[in-house]
Every structure is written in C-alpha cells, then in structure tokens.
Amino acid sequence: MNTTSSYFPIVMQTLVAGGFVGLVLTLTHLLGPSRKNKTKDANFECGVESDGDARVRFSIKYFMTAILFVLFDVEVIFFYPYAVNFKELGGEGFLAVLMFVSFFLIGFFYVLKKGALEWDK
Amino acid sequence: MKIAIDHYIILSTILFCIGVLGVLIRRNAIILLMCIELMLNSVNLLLTAFSTYYGDASGQLFVFFIMVVAAAEVAVGLAILVMIYRNTKSIDINFLKNLKG
Amino acid sequence: MKLIIFITISAIIVLFSSIFNARKAALPLTLMALLIGLGMVFQYNCQCDGSFYRSIVDEATYRNMISFTRFSALFSGVMLVASILIITLSANSIKPIFDHYRSDIYGLMLFSLCGAFILVSYQHLVMLFLGIEILSIPLYILAGSRKNELASNEAAFKYFLMGSFTTGVLLFGIALIYGATGSFDLNALMTYCHVGQISTMFKVGMIMVLAGMSFKIGLVPFHFWSPDVYSGSPSVVTAFMATVVKTSVFGATYILFSKVFGVNSGWTDTLAVIAAATMFVGNLTATQQSGFKRMMAYSSIAHAGYLLIAMVSPDLASGKAVILYMAAYSLATIGAFAVMMAVRRCTGSDDINNFNGLGKSNPVLATALTIAMMSLAGIPLTAGFISKYYLFTIGWSGYSTLIILAIINSAISVYYYFKPVIAMWFKPSTSDIEIKTDTSLNIVLWVCVIGIIAVGVYPDLILAFAD
Description:
The complex is a heterotrimer of chains A (121), B (101) and C (467).
Chain A: H1 8-31, H2 38-41, H3 60-75, H4 79-84, H5 86-113
Chain B: H1 5-25, H2 29-54, H3 58-88
Chain C: H1 2-16, H2 26-47, H3 70-89, H4 102-119, H5 125-143, H6 150-181, H7 186-194, H8 200-217, H9 225-232, H10 235-261, H11 267-286, H12 292-312, H13 318-347, H14 358-361, H15 363-377, H16 383-396, H17 400-426, H18 439-457, H19 460-466
Helix pairs in contact in C: 1-2, 1-4, 2-3, 3-4, 3-10, 3-13, 3-18, 4-5, 4-10, 5-6, 5-10, 6-8, 6-9, 7-10, 8-10, 9-12, 10-12, 10-13, 11-12, 11-17, 12-13, 12-16, 12-17, 13-15, 13-16, 13-18, 15-17, 15-18, 16-18
C-alpha cells in the first residue's frame, strides 16, 4: 500500500488547488482594467486620509499582562495528564495537584502584591 | 499507511537546523527568540514521535516540561529585551558589541 | 531531597519578605536558610557509610528521578558554603538604589541554588533538564539586575541567548538519546551502553548533550560568552556564576559520564583533547587581559580544563579530587572577588592598574588577595596546591601527557595571577583614593584566607568527609 502511486491523489489535489489559484490570479490581472495614479494607490482607510506610522508604541501594561497570561496559561498543561489519570492517581495524586495549584497561587499572589496587574496607577 | 520514524527524525532535524541558522544569522532580537522557540519545538516533535514509536508516555511528559520551561524562558527573555529597549531604543543585536577586550 | 524542598520554601519566604515590608529580614533569613541547609548536608553525610555513589534515601520514593548520594551531599556542601560567603559579601555591596530589590536578588539566588542541588543529584534526564533551567533562568535576571547599566543589560541578554540556545542543543541531544534507548533513566542508559551495540544516534545525542554542558561550564570551544558575561554582570552575580554554577554543572557532567559510561570508555580521548584545549586557551588569553574580572573569567575557563582531568582518569577516587578542587577554587575565587569589589567600589573600575600601591595603603586586603592568587596558581601551602597535587596524581595513571600539559599550564598561570600581586606590592600608587572595606567584606576575606591555608596545610579537613 505504501507505494509512490498511493501519494497520487495528494499530488492531484495540490496541482488542482495551486493551478486554480494561479489561473484566477492571472486572469484578473489580464482582464481587469489597470489605472495607476497617486490617489488610486493610496491606502484606503474609511475615506479619512491616512496619517502617521502604523507602528504605534503601546503601553508597557499590555506587555506585563501578556507575559503573565502566557506563563499562567501554559502551566495549565500539567492538569492534562492528571485529568487523564484522575481515577488511578487517587488521593495521593489529588494532594500533589493541590500542592501544585498552591504554588501557582503563591506566584499569583506575588504578582498581585507587586502591583503588576494594576491598570490605573 | 504509516509514516516511518526516519521521516520524523529528518523533519525535526531540518526544523532544528533552521532554528540554529536563524539564531546565527538574524540580527533582530525578537526573531532570535522565535528561532530558539523553533529549536525547542523541533525537539518536541522528535520526542513525541519517539514516544509513539516506543509506546512509552515518558517522552510526551518531557514535552510538557519543555513547553512550560520554554514559556518561562521566553518571558524572562522578553523582559530583558524590554529593559534593553528602554535604554537603547533599539532591538537590533548590534548593541551586543560593547563588552569586548 | 529534603534539602531541595527546604531551600525552595525558604526562597519563597525570602521573596515574600518584600511584600510584607520586611525587606530588612531578607538577608538574615537567607543566611539562616543556608546554614540550616549546611546542617542538613552534614547530617546526610553522617547518615551514610559505604559507597560514594549509593543513594541515601530510597530512590523509589521519588520514582527514580533523584538519587541523593554522598557525592551530591558533598557537592551541595561546597555550593552552600560558597553561597553563604557570596551572600555575606553582598550585604553591603548592593547599591542603595537597588536596595529595593534586595529580597528579590536573594530569593532568585536561592532558587538558582535549588537547580544546582538538582543537578548534582539527578537520576533521570528530565531532572537534568529541569535542574539546568532552574539554575539558569534566575541567573539571566540576576545578570541584568542593574537595570540602567548598559553593560549589565548586555550581559543579561548575551547570557540568555547563549543559555537558551544551549538548552535547545542539549534537548535535541536528550531526544536522540531517548530515540536510541527508549528511556531517560540513567541506569537504563548504563545498561544500554554495556550491553550490545551503541547506535550512531546515541553517539550524536551524547555529543550534543556534551556540547550543551560545555557551554554552561565554559569549555573550549564553547567558552566565548563567559568573559563578556562575567565582566558585564554585577560582581556578586559573577562570583556566584564562577563558583556555584560551575560546580553544579561540572557535577552534573561528572555524574552523566561516570554513571552512564563507567570509567574506561571511548569518551576519554575526546574529553582529554577538550581538557588540553581549554587549559591552553584559558591561560594564554588570560595573560592578555587588563581587567581583573575578565582575567578571572579566563582563569575559570582554565580551571574547568584542569577539572576535566578527573573525568578522564580511571581512578574511582576522582570524585573526591573534584570536590577538594572545587572547594579550593571556590574559596580562592570568592576571596579574590571580595578584594576586587572593594577596589572597584572605591576607584570605579576593575582595571589591574587600580591595584597599584594597595600593599602600602591597605596591607590586609593586599595580603588576602596575594594568598587567594597563590592558591589559584597552585603555590605550596595553599589549598590550590594540594588540590592540584591530588588531582594530578589521580590523573597520572590515565593520560600522563595531559598531566604534563596541565603542569606547563600551571606555570603559565603564575604569570597572570601575579600581575595584580606585583601591582599591589611593587608599583607606586597612582591615585590617592583610599580603599575602604566593611565588616561583612572583612569576615568573608578572613574565612577565605583561613580556609585556604587550613586546607592547604591539612587537606584531611575536607577529605575526611569523603572517606
């Protein structure tokens, strides 16, 4: 079963998908009228003239929140193996998870007390 | 149809090499962080593949640890980067040239 | 294992002392935790009799993840003593503007120390990885703890970049080893190595793990980051990196190679070449340096080279030699850093010219630095000499050429270690700045000097613990 011919449908699919996209793009390029001038090439932004740079610096508060979110979010990963083996691990496993969560909360408490999540300061 | 383990090894080696090359070549600190993540994730792929191959869960548990530690590491790295940005107003790694001698 | 849990909990308490407005308590709390930890290590060491490498606690209790042996207890002891000295040293050296972070700095140091303890007692490759990360992540922050100094920022980012890159390499190596053997357990790896064919995948994995460890220890050709990071970081953190971090990662490498491969394996040739290259690069580059911190960084690279002799020697007693060497090296390095910090604080830079005339203006500091430098160079009657002697006699039965190269290197090292000594005693003072010291610095200096001479005259002080 594992021969070159068994990959044939995938190749066909790739060819058709790529070919369709290529064909349509070329067609619109050829058929559509092309008028180039300054007004036409300008960015369209709800009719208001665009102004300034797109790279606006945003507040450092977002950064703190984002970093803390990533950290606490990823920690949840350890609940997954526990959830899968919930029955087998029994009381000992529950204690271990409780300890893990309490460490977690200690970290959260530290973050709160340090004022990392205060918005209007 | 089953894909042989060799393909996983080759794929993750390629990903790992892209990550290493990125760290060596690129000058933008954020992209360096992304390349390091790529290296770590290629390891995750390899471990998961081996874990399935041996039918042994410990490889997948290792992946969990790598993901969590990588998140912590990147958090610290970004914090260092913000600190540097405040002082130099740039994240190009050319600023890493003052300590020489 | 209890030691690791205890230090973790005390780290959390120290970290929280700033929240409850008890910042003043951070230093005494940290020192107390470390002293209790030292007591626990003593107790461990008395508990066990017999083999150096047999676990003190039942390994199954911790699911074969950790095996706390006598070897780990002694390594932890050396690291605890080094941390106590470094933290005492930092009591007055943290600048007033950073006093706000004092508890954070101590807390992070304790967390880092936990990683170090895991590294000298792991039994499973997951613990090796976690140990290295717990050791390194707080250090990235500590290296950049002078937020407004560009040098400190740069050191932190360089250390972070190199560290996480290394972690990637190390992990890929671990993944390949897992692919070859199907297990992360050191005992299983040992069985794999002694029974049957060793596959190429395993060898490649092992080389990558070795490369990762070499980065952290600073072995040639992976040493280039360490002078930059050492000179940019705050001095207290540099002293911590040069002693505790080096000791623990070296211990981890030693465990990996001695446990998995046994004493006589094909790896010794590779390690011997790395050892010779590390010694020569470290010593020859150190002779070119004008800054004290950079010189000490290259000196620490060279010492890592000498230590590799223990790994290539077929003698089982080489573990003891490593512990003696690490103790001697840590004492001398911390003593030298203490003097450098006093000079730097008063003159503003760590250039060796700033040591000129210190012999006249402050003979106590100058004598202490002279003794520390003599110990690092390996002059008789100091701890450095006796530990080098012990290491070289043990290594002689393995690679005698390597020992001859090491002795040549010790001779080269005398040249640069005596540069500050000559500057202090024989050169006239260039400025009239008075070098002042404080109580905590004096205590550290005395402990280091007495320790160096006591171990140098009577090495059984440390060796007795290992018998």
